[in-house]
Amino acid sequence: MSKTFFEELNSENITGVAYKNINLKKTVITYLSNVGNATIADLCKELNLSIPKVTNLLNDLIHDGMVQDNGKIYTGGGRKPNLYGLIPDSVLFIGVDVKMNHINIGLLDLNKNIIKISEKLPYKLDNNKESLEDLCNLINQFINEAPVLKEKILGIGINLSGRINRNSGHSYSFFYFEEEPLTKIIESKVGIRVFLENDSRAMAYGEFSSGIVKEEKNVLFLNLDYGIGLGILIEGQLYYGKSGYSGEFGHIPIFDNEIICHCGKKGCLETEASGWALTTMFKDKLKEGSSSTVSFNNDNYDDIKMDDIIYAANHDDVLAIELIGQIGGKIGRGIALLINIFNPQLVIVGGTLAATEEYIRLPIKSAINKYSLNLVNNDTQLKMSKLGEKAGIIGACLLVRNKVLSLV
What we know:
This protein has helices spanning 5-9, 16-35, 40-47, 51-63, 129-145, 182-190, 199-210, 270-273, 275-287, 293-297, 306-313, 318-342, 358-371, 374-377, 390-405; strands at residues 67-72, 82-86, 92-98, 102-109, 114-122, 153-160, 164-165, 170-171, 194-198, 219-224, 228-234, 237-238, 346-350, 381-384.
């Protein structure tokens, strides 16, 4: 009895004709996912295969419950061809976007539809085994409550900040307790293939694929959170760099100060222009006697989080708005540097701090105009993220989808 698509996909020893066929099936699925429905003639042209071969591939995928025959279409004369399309919920992917104080989890089908989403689940990201165990428990809980069979979920994408080796599955900033890849450790606890990605890059890909990006091929995505990350799209492709660690924008030594960054060095952009910096500045101002609506809700200043400051700014808190403006100006200075180097078509501001909208966009724009070259920035648009908290979820799901269904 021949193996199903799912069995072939998870087989480690597939070779020869079977290997060729599984890659052809992946191509069929990817094509149908990108264009919608198609005829056998369309697929023959796209795959450069004979009608009998395409028919056999479609029949196998129909048998496996991934493709359906949508009936005949009217073409204006002659024999009416049948139209084939994906069964969207036949295969699903999970995206997990890990933040410092919460996580977002979503379930996506083959047609990029969100089936289930849970945002801002309470979670504390710490570099210890207890935090990792909590993460796995939240993922398992989401899977158990999802309205689909677990065997239909082909992969889980997990976004973490810091240095991620997506090929080996190692995270060198969080949960690096042993030599075994973090992906394998989590797989053993959730029972589904796991893929790691840097959070900023995954958020960028979500925005590139399903967000505000239209025809632009050269785009920069700024992830403004407690730290500052960067996703880079060059000629329509994510840029990873030689070792896969591109985008460490927050660690450009742009300031001459004695503030020690989380990376251990001094003067990084993050020391004065990140969520960490904003939170520290805000607490210091309160201790010096400045007034804010936040102080009435938090007797202990150490308990104040970035979300509290964002909420205050969006409710007309003068101190919060002032400090976010200062942060925005410094971020804009850094973005000006990027614009001078990359000359991008579009810069997208995303991440948690983007929720302050004009309070951070306007000082960023002002600093860009001040510090970047006019001839360069005239060709660059500045926009706020369209997807918000969903960017990381969608990006993680789509990157897993690409990985599982890729031809390599």
